[in-house]
Amino acid sequence: MIFRLCALFGGMMLPVACFLFACGTGEQNDPPLLTVWIHSAQPAERQTIRDQIRRFNAEEEEYQVHLTIIPEDEYNGQVQAAAVAGDLPDLLVFDGPYVYNYVWQGILIPLGPLLPDVIMDDLIPSLVTQGTYRDTFYSVGTYDSGLGLYARKSHLDEIGARIPHGPEDAWSIDEFDAILAALADAGPNGRVLDLKLNYQGEYFTYAYSPILQSAGADLIDRRDYRKTSGVLNSPAAVAAMMRLQRWFEAGYVDPNLDDAAFTEGRVSLSWVGHWEYSRYHAAWGDDVVILPLPDFGTGSRTGQGSWNWGITRFCGNPEWGVRFLRFLLQPEEVLAMSRADSAVPATKTAMEKSPLYREGGPLRLFAVQLLEGYGVSRPRTPAYPVITSVFSDSFLDIRHGGDVKTILDRASTIIDRDIAFNKGYPD
Amino acid sequence: MEKRAVIPSFANYFIMGLLAFVYVTPVLFMIVGSFKPDMLVLPEAGTWRGIFPVTVSLENYVSVFERVAFERFMFNSAIINGLIVGLGLLVNAPAGYALARLRWRGRQVALGFVLTLMVIPFEAIALPLFYQVTVMGWRDDYLVQAFPFVAFPLSIYLFYSFFLSMPKELEEAAYIDGAGIFRTFFTIVVPNAKPAFASVAIVTLLMFWGMYLWPLLVTAGPSVRPLPLGIATFYTLPPLQWGDILAFGVMMVMPVLVVFLIFQRWFVQGVASTGVK
Amino acid sequence: MSGRFRKYLHVNASDAAAWGMAGPALAGICIFILTPFLLAVFLSFTNLALGSPLPLEFVGFRQYRVIFTDTGFSRALLNNLLFLTGIVPTQTLLALMLALMLNQRLKGIAIYRTLFFMPVVFPMSLIAVIWTLIYAPGPDGLMNTFLGIVTFGAWEPRDFTNHPHLALPAIMLLSVWQGVGFQMVVLLAGLQGIPENLYEAAAIDGAGRWSRFVHVTLPGLRNPLIFVIIITSILSFRVFDQVRIMTRGGPRNATTTVVFEAVRVGFDRGQVAMGAAMSVIFFLIVLLITVIQRRLLKQEGVQ
Hints:
The structure holds 3 protein chains of 3 kinds.
Chain A: H1 2-23, E1 33-39, H2 43-59, E2 64-70, H3 75-85, E3 91-95, H4 99-105, H5 117-122, H6 125-131, E4 132-133, E5 136-137, E6 143-144, E7 147-152, H7 153-159, H8 173-186, E8 193-194, H9 202-214, H10 235-249, E9 253-254, E10 269-273, H11 277-284, E11 288-291, E12 302-303, E13 307-311, H12 318-328, H13 331-341, E14 344-345, H14 348-353, H15 364-371, E15 375-376, H16 384-399, H17 404-421
Parallel strand pairs in A: 1-2, 1-3, 8-9, 8-10, 12-15
Antiparallel strand pairs in A: 3-13, 4-5, 6-14, 7-10, 7-11
Helix pairs in contact in A: 2-13, 7-8, 9-16, 16-17
Chain B: H1 9-34, H2 38-41, H3 59-67, H4 70-101, H5 107-117, H6 122-135, H7 142-146, H8 153-164, H9 169-176, H10 181-189, H11 194-208, H12 213-218, H13 227-235, H14 242-275
Helix pairs in contact in B: 1-14, 3-14, 4-8, 4-11, 8-11, 9-10, 11-14, 13-14
Chain C: H1 3-6, H2 15-43, H3 62-70, H4 73-102, H5 109-121, H6 124-134, H7 142-150, H8 167-192, H9 196-204, H10 209-220, H11 222-235, H12 241-247, H13 258-268, H14 272-298
């Protein structure tokens, strides 16, 4: 009896297989689709984009936007595999600094000629920089990022620290070290700083490579993007990273396994980006101030760049893609996305209307940093994926007490070797 | 087998019971947790309430369906595994029979071939196979997740072993009557090989139901992804609600668990026979 | 063709019919197992990367050198070896103990067998998720509580999956938990295959229980034991799912494994040629283990 079932089953599978083979998963149904991939971001951002697509689809008659959400940690692999298989969606979102590698792979088409000037002029300059590779504009973000030090004002007042007014006024690194020491003395267990050690990979490059730039070093020689040697492992870089290492050695840094070091008041300072604003504000209200990152020698520097949109070469109707992007860049939509995570609005028009980012708003510092050039974009090179993975690993090694010079030397060697092997990533 | 019990009966049962209980705790934990409100799962984990149902509610199960398309994952797993098992039986059994019973040119080579390839673990070829299918544009559908596993050396070998040890009288009778190979195979051999088919089907199902690596490489997005990927993605989807995740897990393992419990005799037989050569 | 098999074969079979029966399966394994294997060897000597517009070229043994210096592969090999030395003895001993215990004619013993075997049936991705919860940091975590009880409160709650030294053992534990059932079943079958009269003869000769175990049970279990040891050794190199889901290579490569590293490099970063080189080395290791098995089994004259 069971056996007959099995036989029946096996026999049934053959026509099923043929059927599946014949029709594949191609969804050639009406209306035509504009396929879109995004990463699985925070719930608020995800919900916002879903709502935006819903709004857009309600208005748009010629086609419908079809969304697929891909988990963040496999995103890059999936995109590359899809590119090779000829299976990419029409539009996709990707982490900012990866655009240059995707352009190099030939995945994206230039957006410059497709977007009207009125939009290009309205974009904040950091986003224009981010989307430009070899003088051509390829990707546009609907928001940018802000990075700084969240601080408990009451704790700073207690130790008599001065409060910087803006990035030009940032604490020097010596001042910063003194403040850390004073806070540690005043606090219960010596832990005063949250460096988001519970985060992964890419974040460490984003958050801590500005230290190198502030110290006069960098991740790579930006004149020709071919070598890191002498830049990543320069004496200035080593010195800066050693100061970072001393914070770990002195026990100032909270491991933050529960991601609640700041919200539970265990630390006074949190070195992180805009997305924590609502949580931190909810926890401590007006006692939270946002300060620029310390100046390691040549001025305070901070990170910039975030997820942004590009149109792939597989898009049959780039005009449709552009229509969708223009929708997303409308002021109300930009503000909606900005509200989701407290991100920096992409356009100057939206920024003026944003309660968080306009003049006098609580996150104005982030806007100022981006508008006035304190933000440094991550290296705009197809070698970026290698640079970031090696730098992140190096950060963790430094965190665990390794010899900084050796670590940076090794990082530099590996990156340079990869660049050489790829023949400098030629056009 | 030693007939004498190792130690007196009651103590025996007690010790084994205790061991089994500790051993099965994670499973109990999963089941009980799936019926608890999310907020209680972690705090009660370390207490007796973690493995003993106090509050019972179906809210997690409902929530799973609201948050992801669970039925889609289940459907995908069913199709993919159905194909692998169903087509596998159709393809591997005749091969095992030909190797065991027929004399033909190349038989020796073919047998060696199968035995050699059996040694290669899937992970060793996962990446190049991924590249192979990707370059052909074959991605993100059911067939690419099933086809590579239809022809399976272990299945061929299990059938081969079985047919070797099957008594030949019935076949010989058929051949004497003038029946051809195919007819004999399908009408006489197969109906008498039910245990083999059952074992192979079950072993294959249990091996591939939990497959994670291959679908990860060749699919993007949830439309054709099977359950193992579903739970891995669900687990990383904020907000982190453990009750929902455990409910997902319970539903995901139910089919194979049921199959296993009903057919465990065959399965255990299949497993044991590979080891006790 | 050995004489033993001759009597099993029929004579009146046309080659065409036989190829018709075996053909599809053979073609399948050719396309989906042999070809990728050869492709891996070939690619490992090239510079292939997904999406790279650079032309394909041969680079000799470069990938084999680079994977040891520029990726986590060396650490992965070490981790797999640690896995092997940790899991094989533990799992085998535990399985043997359970098999001996279950090898009694007590009523309802099959239930215990089912319970111990059940985890084998669970998908590893599910087990990884459940055990992530079990390993939850802080005093409420199941594992932390359990260790606290067992050490009479001496145990401090730890975050297992983020701990550079505890992460790998944590993963080993759950692998053991899943795998014991399989070994137990094989050893149990082996135990049941040992003829009763051997024990009786030994008892008559005055051998005590321990002596009977060492001189009758263990030798009788030789083949099943070798089999489970080899299978478990090979499996300890195939670890992937739990690492990908629970630790993603662990605190700074503390839990990376050969397969995980190959996927990380070959898929996540698109460096297919490097991943291929890792796959080839992985295969060679498995081959080595298998060859050792065949040698050991041949000594008994069993094929």
